[in-house]
Write a sequence for this structure.
């Protein structure tokens, strides 16, 4: 039987096939034609349509803050993704391990299981994102030693202290990289009277986004370029022009934004993340605190790529903070390692069938 790992994220879905590695990494997006009620595109193809669709097509994101928001759309997306990986849905149905946020309740867990079963899996088991992210980042979680991982995704931030293969204390926050995008949109509208799209806000965040003032930042960030982007960034700049709609005149306009704008715009969600990590540390048993003091905090998830985030978390906690290698793939790689486990996996996690 095929064994598959799925990280069904708010922003991106990743699929790991045992023996083959990560076979899919695409935005958790589906384009649906409203007139015919059919899926017209999934993943990257659907994400490219955001904000540019005619009335008859909607681009939907069926996962919100790591939980299923639109069940049927999520099933259609999962079916299409599994098909793209070449996994046969008939015959030898796959067995799946999927990651979920720590805070999800039983109903939300059930919804994730049902989506994966309805998409063609034979059985499914769920595991906490922070735990698999730690495994994927190379932390040996089974030791009698405390480790702390903070996974900042698109819609959630999961902070957990682990030891002996389990989570000792954790915090799950419905704040992530997408919250930064929303905060940037709100800020630009309030301060400059310009409405920009979330796609533009995200691009701006990736180019000049930072949570610490440039003069305080020790890290110089390089610019990425995105084909067909609505904005025109400049190499290694701390400012760029974005385009949007003037909320007063209704006309298209350009607006120059600086790294200082980014700091101001994202201060509130960033504060929520640092507060949550601090409260987690306060609750950590002293024996484990001693281990954390030595090893520091490890960041995973795409939100960890936000400029200055390491510095900000380190300042707030007085702990050394580092970003994992390839942070966005840590969770799915961690599930991959679990799939490779030679022992009796059913003793560690519980599989459920239809
Ligand atoms: N270079 C970058 N700078 C800042 N943010 C980034 C960068 N690259 C990606 N991101 C952000 O990372 C987020 C996506 O991360 P990730 O793929 O880990 O989330 P996810 O697993 O889909 O979501 P979740 O775990 O919350 O369900 C998005 O908000 C994206 O804008
Ligand atoms: Mg994630």
């Amino acid at each position: 039987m095929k064994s598959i790992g799925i990280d069904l994220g708010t922003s991106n879905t990743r699929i790991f096939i045992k023996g083959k590695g990560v076979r899919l990494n695409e935005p958790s997006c589906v384009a649906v034609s409203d007139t015919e009620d059919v899926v017209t595109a999934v993943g990257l193809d659907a994400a490219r349509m955001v904000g540019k669709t005619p009335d008859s097509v909607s681009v939907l994101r069926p996962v919100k803050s790591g939980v299923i928001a639109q069940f049927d759309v999520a099933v259609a997306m999962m079916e299409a993704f599994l098909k793209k990986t070449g996994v046969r849905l008939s015959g030898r149905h796959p067995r799946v391990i999927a990651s979920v946020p720590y805070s999800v309740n039983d109903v939300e867990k059930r919804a994730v299981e049902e989506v994966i079963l309805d998409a063609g899996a034979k059985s499914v088991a769920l595991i906490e994102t922070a735990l698999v992210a730690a495994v994927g980042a190379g932390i040996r979680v089974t030791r009698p030693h405390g480790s702390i991982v903070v996974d900042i995704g698109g819609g959630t931030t999961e902070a957990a202290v682990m030891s002996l293969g389990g989570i000792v204390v954790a915090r799950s926050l419905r704040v992530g990289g997408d919250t930064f995008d929303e905060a940037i949109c709100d800020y630009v509208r309030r301060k400059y009277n310009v409405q920009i799209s979330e796609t533009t806000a995200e691009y701006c965040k990736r180019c000049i986004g930072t949570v610490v003032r440039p003069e305080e930042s020790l890290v110089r960030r390089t610019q990425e370029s995105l084909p067909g982007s609505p904005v025109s960034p400049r190499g290694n700049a701390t400012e760029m022009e974005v385009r949007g709609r003037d909320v007063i005149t209704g006309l298209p306009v350009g607006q120059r934004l600086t790294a200082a704008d980014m700091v101001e715009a994202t201060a509130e969600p960033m504060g929520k993340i640092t507060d949550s990590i601090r409260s987690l540390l306060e609750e950590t048993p002293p024996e484990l605190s001693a281990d954390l003091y030595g090893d520091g905090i490890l960041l995973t998830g795409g939100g960890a790529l936000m400029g200055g985030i390491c510095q900000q978390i380190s300042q707030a906690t007085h702990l050394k903070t580092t970003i994992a290698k390839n942070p966005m793939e840590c969770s799915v790689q961690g599930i991959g390692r679990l799939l490779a486990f030679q022992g009796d996996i059913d003793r560690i996690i519980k599989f459920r069938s239809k």
Notes: The first helix runs from residue 44 to 47. The two ends are 16 Å apart (CA to CA). The pocket of magnesium ion (ligand 2) is lined by residues 7, 9, 129, 153, 301, 331 (CB under 6 Å).
